[in-house]
Design a protein that fits this description.
This protein is α+β, with helices and mostly antiparallel strands and about 120 residues long. Helix content is about 30%, strand content about 35%. This is 7,8-dihydroneopterin aldolase.
Length: about 120
């Protein structure tokens, strides 16, 4: 299976368990790799036959703007489910980094895989 990816997409959302985190928006950095057969689009050179990564990025951004989760794990699971359903993905890998959550680390987060990648 081929893969289409988006790396380093930054979105702002309400995320965290502490009271002060519930009152602000924080940056999350996302890397997503999606299983997709690129042969039909490569043969036709037509956008409507490919996985439009710009549309995926827009959907991720909209999801982040509307969400308010305590855990990065919940954010990841719900986003993975949404992307697989809305874009008919056979599989994906999603890495979510929360920069600054641990002062001595560049970032912390989760990485999940769902379906066949």
């Amino acid at each position: 299976m081929d893969k289409v990816f988006i790396e380093g997409l930054e979105v702002d959302t309400v995320i965290g368990v502490y009271d002060w985190e519930r009152e602000i928006r924080q940056c999350l950095r996302l890397d997503v790799t999606m299983a997709w057969d690129i042969r039909p689009s490569a043969e036709s050179d037509e956008l409507d036959k490919t996985l439009n990564y710009a549309a995926v990025a827009e959907r991720i951004t909209a999801f982040a703007q509307q969400s308010s989760f305590q855990l990065v794990e919940t954010f990841a699971e719900r986003l993975a489910s949404l992307l697989m359903q809305e874009f008919q993905l056979p599989g994906l890998r999603l890495k979510i980094t929360k920069p600054g959550a641990v002062p001595t680390a560049a970032g912390v987060g989760v990485e999940i895989e769902r379906g066949c990648l």
